Amino acid sequence: MCKIAVVYWSGTGNTESMARAVVEGVEAGGANATLLTAKEFTPDLVDSYDAIAFGCPAMGAEVLEEDEFEPMFTACLPKLRDKRIALFGSYGWGDGEWMRNWEESCQGAGAVFACDSVICAEAPDEEAVAACQELGKALADPNAIRA
Asked: Which of 6, 50, 109, 117 would you call most buried, defined as having the most Cβ atoms within 10 angstroms of its Cβ?
């Protein structure tokens, strides 16, 4: 059975809600999910999981959260080569530039996307929750790779 880590940072609870929906999707897809905050996850844990979902909201000028999430993620990035991942997060302004930049850094590191990233404005609505659940199901499927 696949082991999936769902790693997130949330300031308002929006991205945490998305992370919980990802966990629901992973479990519905028949895999084991572990929900972890950015503080709890380290690069040493990357190899313990078959796939990883990373969630972070857009902060400031559309960047990843700089105190906890970004340092953790940057430390993990070299270990993501050939690792199946998915990204999700919420934003309150802008057009999703933080996600496009984040995806580019992952692609440059050689990570393999299981599916399209999920973003939503502010709190996740029913559509965003469903998209996060589908993201989780894609991670649970060891053959799912974004085209």
From this structure: 6
Burial of 30 (0-12, 13-18, 19+ CB in 10 A): exposed
Query: What pLDDT does 95 receive?
Result: 85
71 touches 98 (CB < 8 A): no
Going by C-alpha positions, the residue among 85, 90, 101 that lies closest to residue 135 is: 85
Question: Does 142 have pLDDT greater than 80?
Answer: yes
Distance CA 17, CA 21 (A): 6
- Compute the chain's Rg from CA coordinates: 13
pLDDT given for residue 62 in this prediction: 87
Q: Inter-axis angle of helices 126-140 and 14-28, to 10 degrees?
A: 50
Classify 115 as helix, strand or coil. Answer: coil
| Verdict on whether the full-model pTM lies above 0.70 | yes
Name the amino acid, one letter, at 27. E
- Distance, in Å, from the CA atom of 95 to the CA atom of 98, rounded to the nearest integer, reads 8
* Tokens at 53, concatenated: 């979902």
